[in-house]
Amino acid sequence: MSRALIIVDVQNDFCEGGSLPVEGGAELAGAISEYVDAHHGQFDHVVATQDWHVDPGAHFSEEPDFIDSWPKHCVAGTRGADLHPDLDTEYIQAYFRKGQFTAAYSGFEGLLAPDDAVPTGDRKPGAMPVAGGAPGGDLDVETGGVALAGEDAIGLDDWLQSHDVEDVVVVGIATDHCVRATALDGVQAGYSVTVLRDLTVGVAEDLDDAIAEMELGGVDIA
Question: Residue 124 catalytic?
Answer without folding.
Answer: no
